[in-house]
Amino acid sequence: MQIKIRNMDKKDVDDVVRLEALSYGEHHWSKESFYNELANNLAHYYCAVNSETNELLGYTGCWHIFDEAHITTLSVHPDYRKKGVAQRLLFSVIDDCYKKKIKYITLEVRESNVPAISLYEKNGFKSIGTRKNYYQDNNENALIMFTENIWYEKFKTLYNKLHSEFHQREGCND
């Protein structure tokens, strides 16, 4: 299966909301939330699709505010987890940050979401604090995660190493 990353469009919203509900239950974002994000000049949203079938595999979004990007959401269909989709989406966010001269990337993630935390840590994010009772559905805490300046050599070296290893393993051409 070839994974293609492309900009999210209004025509994707129905599929994105179905995946959102599958991933997050009844406390998921609405169609209106995604339409608002797509109309927001600060927001940048991407879909991961099967390049042969155009099936939605996952999506992510972030806001660019001055020299910082805030990842607002990242979700992968349960059938396609642990297949490189989340990594590809995260690479897309980081690549876009380099293009837009962003310095820092931040996000919140559930304390119980060990696979996501592992992905972010592998990609140079560090936990810098906790937002108590952040999630409405169960009052779970969120870890606040941040990168160092992505232009620093240490981060760039890690990113280039991960990117190269991933593309060699996955046989990607981008």
Cα-based radius of gyration, to the nearest Å: 16 Å
Q: Sum up the overall morphology in one term.
A: globular
Q: Largest sheet, if any?
A: 7 strands, mixed
SSE succession: EHHEEEHEHEEH
Q: So, CATH architecture?
A: 3-Layer(aba) Sandwich
Unreliable residue runs: none
Strand content: 25-35%
Number of domains: 1
Tell me the helix content.
25-40%
- Sheet with most strands: strand arrangement: 1-2-3-4-5-7-6
- Average residue pLDDT: 93
Question: How far apart are the termini?
Answer: 15 Å
What would your notes on this structure say?
- It is built from 5 helices and 7 strands.
- The protein is of the alpha+beta class.
- It has a 7-stranded mixed sheet, sandwiched between helices.
- The chain is globular.
- The model has no long low-confidence stretch (mean pLDDT 93).
Keywords:
alpha+beta, Aminopeptidase, globular
Please outline the helices and strands.
Layout: E1 3-7, H1 13-24, H2 31-39, E2 43-50, E3 56-65, E4 68-76, H3 85-99, E5 104-110, H4 114-122, E6 125-131, E7 142-147, H5 153-170
Parallel strand pairs: 4-5
Antiparallel strand pairs: 1-2, 2-3, 3-4, 5-7, 6-7
Could you write a compact summary of the structure shown?
The chain has five helices and seven strands; from the N terminus they run βααβββαβαββα. It has about 170 residues and is α+β, with helices and mostly antiparallel strands. The longest helix is centred in the last third of the chain and has 18 residues, at about 155-170.
